[in-house]
Give the backbone structure.
Amino acid sequence: MHMSDALLSPSVSLSMWAISGSILAWSLKKIRREEGGEDSSHQIVLMGILGAFVFAAQMINVAIPGTGSSGHLGGGLLLTLILGPYRAFVVLFTVLLLQAFLFADGGILALGCNIFNMAFIPAFIVYPLLFRTILGQTRNAKSESAMGAFQNTKRLFWACMLSGVVTCVLGASALIAETTLSGLAELSFKTFAAFMLPIHFAIGLLEGIVTYSVCNSQFKLFQKLDINTPDSIKVQSGRKRWILSLCLVTVICGSIFSWFASKNPDGLEWSLEKSYSLVNSFDLSDNSAATLEWLPSFVSKIQAKSAIFPDYGFSNGEILSKIKPHVSEKLQLSLTGLGGSILVLCLCLLIGGVFRFRLIKTASQ
């Protein structure tokens, strides 16, 4: 559900950039205050690994039967359940930032909207208000993460499924509102919503299934550990096994499963096509009538230069253009998928490491 710059007016785009930037600053501040516990190093590693996994998983579009559309994992809910809302928001911000600048996946002007729709809504609306309620959790001051606090897998399943659907539907609703407020797309609000909401309901089921599968795998792994082993050893052993499993899945998703991604348009593209087929054709690249009309073209030039792997292939840059004819499309997907996952991993580790270093330095003074 990555938005295009062409759907947004500069005023709406800049407003959403400001809102998302403020939430990011708030989240970083909260993370800095929480650092220093015995689990902080583990959380930093999880930020990197899960960020890489979400990046790789988002490359895999799954066809939605009977629609001609497709959908992919958003990842906001999954990240929140394991990392807590603040770290989840920062990780997904990192993923979306690299996708926009390096892979031209989502517009740079639209980045503020994408962050709000895909990260803020699951982390700060759906998770505290819906997921915790279904799971029967109370707000834990010591840990914002849901993992380790649940015992009932049936409750977990329904919490993930319902939260996944609500996350996608609310995100789609926010996208509709942002598009309508921009006023660039000449389509009926009711028509657009009539296509967007049902298709994202279906995508939400996919979100719930993947979220439940990953979270339940961790729960089951801890259950299978030797009960005679001391608790501290069991926890460390369980974490290592689960993290290694997640690393393996990330590599497979980014390097192999991405080959079989559906070529069908995603939920947003499909909804736009269906909506405009009922009225007039619409050129998604045309937003010259917007206020600050110089800004979209300026940002577009920046993205054209920064996106060294547009559409997850070798198309930009003198060296890559020469290499491209000799590298198959599948190999290009594998290399860019693995490369992007590694970049997300490194950037998340860097962010977490900086906070931990500053905390240690402050404590030593």
Summary: The chain has twelve helices and two strands. The radius of gyration is 21 Å.
